Amino acid sequence: QEQLVESGGGWVQPGGSLRLSCVASGFFFSASIMDWYRQGPENQRELVATISTGGTTNYRDSVKGRFTISRDNAKNTVYLQMNSLKPEDTGVYYCVIVPPQRRGYWGQGTQVTVSS
C-alpha cells in the first residue's frame, strides 16, 4: 500500500526550530524525487524544498539558509529541518514523492504554526 506519513509539526515561537519527517511506504523511495510543499493561510501552495535521488537540493528563496532538506534511503524517510522560523512560515506542510515516470503523490500534511 502506497502511503506517506508526515510528522513533526506543531506550534513554535518566532526564531524557533522544528524538524518534519515523512516516511514513505509502498514506493521505490531511493529512485524518487522528494519535495516539501506548504499551503499558507491564504491557501497559496508553494514548493519549499526538493531533493533529488542523488541528494541535490533546491530551496525557495525565502527559506534558503534556514531550512535543510535531507533524505535517508535506508529508512525511506525525508526530513525538513526548519530553523529561525518566521510567522510567514506558518502553514500546512506536505511531503510529496515523485516516483520515476509517475505523478507526485501527496501526504496528508502537518500543521506548522509560528507565532508569539
What report would you give on this structure?
The protein is an all-beta fold and 116 residues long.
Q: Which properties best describe this structure?
A:
globular
- The rounded distance between the terminal residues' Cα atoms is 40 Å
Structural class: mainly beta
Strand fraction equals over 45%
Oligomeric state, counting identical vs distinct chains? single chain
Q: How confident is the prediction overall: mean pLDDT?
A: 96
Radius of gyration: 13 Å
Per DSSP E runs of 2 or more residues, the count of β-strands stands at: 11
| Biggest sheet architecture | 7 strands, mixed
Shape: globular
The unreliable regions are none
Residues in helices, as a percent range = under 10%
Pattern of helices and strands: EEEEEEEEEEE
How many helices in DSSP terms?
0
What is this structure, in a nutshell?
With 116 residues, the chain is mainly β. 0% of the residues lie in helices and 52% in strands.
Layout of helices and strands:
Elements: E1 3-7, E2 10-12, E3 18-25, E4 33-39, E5 45-51, E6 57-59, E7 67-72, E8 77-82, E9 91-98, E10 105-106, E11 110-114
Parallel strand pairs: 2-11
Antiparallel strand pairs: 1-3, 3-8, 4-5, 4-9, 5-6, 7-8, 9-10, 9-11
